[in-house]
Fold these 3 entries.
Entry 1:
Amino acid sequence: MSNTFPPIRPITTSPLHHWFGYYDKCQIDPTNRYALSMGVGFEHRSPRGKDAIKLGLIDMEGNDTWTEFATTQAWCWQQGCMLQWVPNSNTDIIWNDREDDHFISKIYNTKTGQTRTLPKAVYTLSPNGKTAIGTDFRRINHMRPGYGYAGITDPNHNISAPEDAGIYTLNLETGESELIVTIAEVAKISYPHGDISEARHYFNHLLFNTDGSRFIFLHRWRFGEGTFHTRMLTANANGSNLHVVDDYGKMSHFIWRDPHTILGWAYHPSQNNKFYLYEDQTQNTPQPIGPDTMTVNGHCTYLPGNKWILNDTYPSKDSRNQILYLYHVDSGKRIDLGIFPSPEPYTGEWRCDLHPRFSPNGQFITIDSAHAGNGRQIYRIDIGDII
């Protein structure tokens, strides 16, 4: 590693393989002291229905001590078990689990040590910490292993666009749930580039905006065993006022900049594959951002204040290097934070993307990486001297 890169340290170590998962979840508590982590004893294969992983707290001010607080059987390699701190809380941690023949979520209070169970699995939480939305992880696993959960068969396996599956709300206090957007209704929305009525449909990648008024979801479909097609939609928090943000078929990673603006890697006929800024609920042409510096797909987030974009790359084809970097929005300057080779076995479903996450104070970031040769582990990188 170059000496010009900022300080980095592992905050987990073998023999368990540790990771956090997706880049749009809150890994670090409001005090910036504790990091959430998942741990498992194997790699390089799909999870099976009874495979359990451990969940732990890392005390970054206490020699990175890892303290287990739960296990779960509802997880995948890319997004884990949706483990995250509940917004607007200093004590509550939420994750998904399995109970008999259905997926649920649990909330653990770090102060009382008590855990309570909610009847549905969660995908994204509103910023006020009172509501979650979720979708059918059984169907995701059937349609795209690596993002859903194994062990429970999709009851709509043979139905291309089910009426009784889609996006639901979940009250985190009462457990009350309601189906608010169905796969069937979204599949019927006209697609200008072809007839998709005979395709098989599902939803993935749900994310509330920054004030909880609307959320994003990706509508994906494929014909037979063909490639996936994607369009991005948004909706009000109650599922009303559906809006197609992008329907060119290739939307990938995205993040809300503010309640009305979305940054995403996508194809658009104006400038091909790039990061674009989209204005929600308008038909305005998206504007490219960082076209000469953020030139490849990555897992993007805005640091607090929206002056910096945190991003990464997939492994390069020749050296399998993953690059972590910051992009300064006003100046267009890019600052590389590290180069992390991804060993050959980490491909496909069980690849180890960096998935960079930032701390609440914006002073450090964490990544998942397998570059050190002891399996996937979590690393902390301090960026206070840069921003």
Entry 2:
Amino acid sequence: MRKFFYLSFCFLFFISCQSLKHKDVIYGQSAQKKDLKLNIFVPSHSENKKLPVLIFVHGGNWNSGNKNTYGFFGRNFAKKDVVTVIPEYTLSPEANVNEMTMEIAAAIKWVQQNIDKYHGDKTQIFVTGHSAGGQLVGSAVLNPKFGIPYHTISGIILNDAAGIDMKYYLERNPPKNQNDYVKTWSKDPQKWYEASPIYFLTEHSPPFLIYVGSNTYPSIKTANKRFLKKLHEFQPEVQPVMINKSHIPMILQYFWPWSKRFTETTNFIKKPAR
């Protein structure tokens, strides 16, 4: 057993050497006037090539999480020749969901304007989010008020996304102070609508790749089922990739460089533009 852990450590150390990390790059300021930062992971052999870009937004029920926890995600995608960006955002109760989404939109715009300095191709920008991160990237890209033109995002990857139809959920489960939901979502149904990506799907929406855990929370299963039904009006070819996992393991699987998710995602990224 000790030998196994030693070999695993050596392997992961070798993997980490195959990428370069640019830590705490400032991309903007929060409504509270605090610097907002992101981490960028670049393949160490990128040289003069322009590589596709993946922006990952973490989950945590909108009130927890830290970009620095997900270095494994950035390193492993960089190993697959994908420049990976992981932004932070202000959590509830310090910020509400609209402010969080504005920050994620600002991070996307920063990437569009600056990623060429890190060997990224600004014409191949993909976004992905797990749990609450799925709602944030979905809203930032799909809701026009956040100012991200559809054609500037090449694809959206949702990983066991929560909150993608929060209006439907909160109408049946009104927000309480528990989990800071009143602060996060307010008690205004119009704001629930504006924060729910499902209501902003159109024929112009970027292509989707959608993962759902077969053992995830019932509310996430319901929201993804509703989302897919609406999405099929515009992208009937999209089928969810069901994974035999619960909610947290849906992101932990990216810790292992040999996970099938890397092959599936890079294949999605390499598909010709729709």
Entry 3:
Amino acid sequence: MKLTTPALLDRDLSILSFNARVLSLAQREDYPLLERLRFLCIVSNNLDEFFEVRMPLQMEAYQQGVTSGPVTATTFERVAEMAQALVAQQYQLFNDALMPALAKERVHLVSGNVRTAEQTTWVANYFKREVLPFLMPVSLDPSHPFPQVANKSLNFIVRIAVGGEEKIAIVRAPRVVPRLVQLPPSISKGEQCFVSLTSVIRANLEVLFQGATILHFSQFRVTRNSDLEVDEDDVINLRTALREELAHRQYGEAVRLEVTQECDDRLAEFLLKQFNLPPLALYRVNGPVNLGRLIQLPDMAKGDHLKFVPFQPHWPQHIKRNTALLAQMREKDLLIHQPYESFEVVIQLLEEAVKDEQVLAIRMTIYRTGADPRMLRLLQEAVRRGKEVLVVVELKARFDEEANINWAEALESVGAQVVYGVVGLKTHAKMLLIMRREGKVIHRYGHLSTGNYNPKTTRLYTDWSMLTADAHLTREMETVFRHLTSELPIPALKHLLVAPFTLQHSMIKQLEKAQRLAKQGKPARVIAKMNALTDVPLVTALMKAASAGVEIDLIVRGACILPVDLPALKGRIRVRSIVGRLLEHSRVFYFELDGQVSMWLSSADWMSRNMMRRVELAWPIKQPAMQSRIYQESLQLYLQDNTDAWQLAENGQYVPVAQQVSDAAPVACQSLLLQQYHSM
């Protein structure tokens, strides 16, 4: 099969397709109402990031009239068209399904035209007391130019008449005021009533513009390019340079303008001109600008039947709770399947290492940590107890830069050694290494994970963690840490696969081996689970293997550029996406070649950035019992799913598997695992 220039699927359209699958969760009538609203809001937040990160390149191609290459003026038009359709679907679902259904459950987002007299009075008083002091309208004229508008901030544009003269004014909504407020029970008639800040301001604009006539107004919101650009070769201190650059992120090039559906054309055109945007970048919405802000509502509203039954991650059955973890790790490797099993094991491991007088050193990578301070405090305590603490903090973790800078400064303040990884690469590998003196020997204990050291997301994301005292793995982990601090070349490793050095090459070699065996008529099977598949060399290797007879199943949550419609593939590559209550995040690579099984867990997706521009790890799972467990829980069950699964069709669209097997007994992998672990 000749695959020199395969017609790959468009990455950005595939990302939007994933968000359409997430939006489908908001349509599922078997999901609780507030959870459906939550998924609707998640899509809004996902789209924000899409526009901040992916759309700038598309916009540049459109404005420059680019006609060739993977990103052109035409691809911008296609992406914009799909994004517009997705946003329209969001608001239709919000207005026609979710809000009416919540109203039947006595949960209301009360707009001005349906408030009672008492509610109107309360909102007016709230406005004067809590909002008005922070509002400073700017009437545009030569001495009051169009103000700087921060990324994703909420604003109003108002056309007013003063003494027969028309003017345009801009009002910034204050960020210090809550975006959602619950009305007191005394004026809610036994119901749960909420008002948005947008609605509060809109209902009281006359108070703000006393002496003027309001002719027209609209909310508006601009989304900007949020990629940080720091030339690491030209800076002395990356942390200082990034902190300075963060201040400019709020005012990057505009890529999207959102206004209300009723916004008149004159005001919309005026705003497009101010932000140097084409008409295709204008999004008119039938409801609140920025549905993402309503993600607070599911947490604020009460009603157990409106939310998922809470799930409490369990302490793993195979790990003894009252026995030292280091001692258990000496006996065997320990595997944790999050969030079904608790991440608290990892926190306890770190706490145990901090308190153990024989532990001499702790090494750790930090990519995303969240707001939970426990791990930071434990590392600080380790320094105070005289241990050598090295932390590799990835300062360029997108949208977590400021949090990670704060971590770095807090650790340095107590004397920890903090480095920022390798110049030009992001450190995305997740590993913790503990060095302990036992007699005359230094023993190493390690933790490797497909997910972040973030206690919050470990309750929402599916990931695998492994605790190990395997001398081969832990010595190689030490080698990787040394590379991160010194930037010296990594010597050939026998067990760990490390990007950008050996991971991509090793996966391609495995696929080439499968291809050779298939050509010889020997059985060859590949199953790979990941978040995204966009690396062209790996996609090409997959297609070549399938064309030779290798059976390949890919479980790809998000973007996938691999087409399944090529005749030479003969249906041997099957791509599915699992989208459910939990966010799929684990990466599992499984090869069954002529009866021999090899399996890796990894921090890396099969994307070019992971393979070539990040420090990533994949580690082998060699124990048959562990292989069997991972295979059953992350691969086999996922391939059987006919409830949360979507299949990539030959036309490049995703089709719910449930539509194809309507008469089959339902199989929902996440629900089954939640039930399985809950019953333990």
